[in-house]
Amino acid sequence: MSLEKWSAIASVGLFAMFVGEMISIYYFMMDTPSNLEFAVAFEPAPKILQFISIGVAPASILAALSFILSRRYGSKPIGSMIIAGGIILLIGMAYCYTLLDKLTPTYIVDTVIITPLLFMGVSIPVMVFGVILFRINKKRPKKEYF
To answer: What are the alphabetically sorted keywords of the record (predicted)?
Structure first.
């Protein structure tokens, strides 16, 4: 397979990993063990920023790379993988946003509230770029008559 296919596959995997990390940290903030408060102080903002830097930022870069590499000829498989990554991100962040009401009040900070909304917004352009790859037709070579 070519480089653009591998980067699209990696971007889908990183989008899914980021959604899984965010859902797991939101579940952790819902059910905090009672002995955790005395042993370790947990701050959600640095952990979420870490998840962003190892998950969704590289995924977005890889999706953009696969788009740039295949924009001249268009590719339905690559476009569908980019769209799938955007859908995974949109659904996962929408689910995280529904969990905000159930979080422990001490963990509700700006980063926890803004992150799902921000990446729901990021998922829409990702899906648009995938749709653009669907619409691009391969250029036919010009016939030489003489």
So the answer is: Membrane, Transmembrane, Transmembrane helix
**Could you list the pLDDT tens digit for every one of the 146 residues in the chain?**
688 899 999 999 999 999 999 999 999 888 876 555 554 577 899 999 999 999 999 999 999 999 998 888 878 889 999 999 999 999 999 999 999 999 888 888 999 999 999 999 999 999 999 999 888 777 666 777 76
Tell me, yes or no, whether 65 lies in a domain: yes
**Which SS3 state, helix, strand or coil, does residue 146 take?**
coil
Domain count, the chain: 1
In a domain, 10, yes or no: yes
Structural domain includes residue 130:
yes
21 lies in some domain: yes
The terminus-to-terminus CA distance of the chain in angstroms comes to 36
- Residues near 133 by Cβ (< 8 Å), separated by ≥ 6? 67, 70, 71, 74, 75, 76, 78, 79, 82
Q: Which residue segment(s) compose the domain that 122 sits in?
A: 3-135
